[in-house]
Amino acid sequence: MSTSGTPLGADPTRPSPDESLGTLVSHLTDDLGKLTRQELALAKAELRGEAKKAGKGAGMLGGAAVAGWMVAIFLSLTAMWALGEVMHLAWAALIVCVVWAIVAAVLAMAGRKELQEVNPTPDQTVESLKEDAKWLKTQNN
User: Fold this and answer.
1) CB 3.0 to 4.6 Å from 122: which of 21, 46, 52, 132, for a disulfide?
2) Distance between CA 29 and CA 81 in Å, rounded?
3) Helix ranges restricted to H, 86-122
4) Three-state SS annotation for 57-74
């Protein structure tokens, strides 16, 4: 006998033959509760990671929208000054507009790529639940 009251070499996770049905059901309920909490924690962790990716992609698309707005402003100013002045001030405004256009294009492509990589399915949780179902089937047989 060990100090915990179980015979040496005995598996503490296996029910002893002298346990009552109520005790066995209680152990099963506790185990299923613990398993459910673990599965929910795993699903939360997976979905939190995917939400961060989606947020990053959405932020980049928001940046592309701001840059696109700046393109519209500077294109309008450039057209106005080019018609009014026809010289160096208009070229300066056009250069700024081209820079904003490049920024918008880069942010839009990066944001789109981030959003395409988002996987909303908690794959590890699905696999773990399949394993749990297999385990339950073997316990019922």
Assistant:
1) 46
2) 77
3) 88-116
4) HHHHHHHHHHHHHHHHHH
- pLDDT given for residue 67 in this prediction: 92
Residue 27, number of CB atoms within 10 A of its CB:
13
Q: Is the pTM of this model over 0.70?
A: no
Contact 97, 81 (CB under 8 A): no
* Nearest of 75, 138, 133 to residue 101 by alpha carbon: 75
Backbone angles phi, psi at 4, to 5 degrees: -85, -5
Residue 132 · residue 35 · CB < 8 Å? yes
Helix (H) or strand (E) run with residue 85 in it: helix 21-85
Residues of the chain with pLDDT under 50: 1-2
What SS3 state is found at 108?
helix
Cα distances (Å, whole numbers) of residue 42 to 29, 72, 107, 130:
20, 46, 32, 14
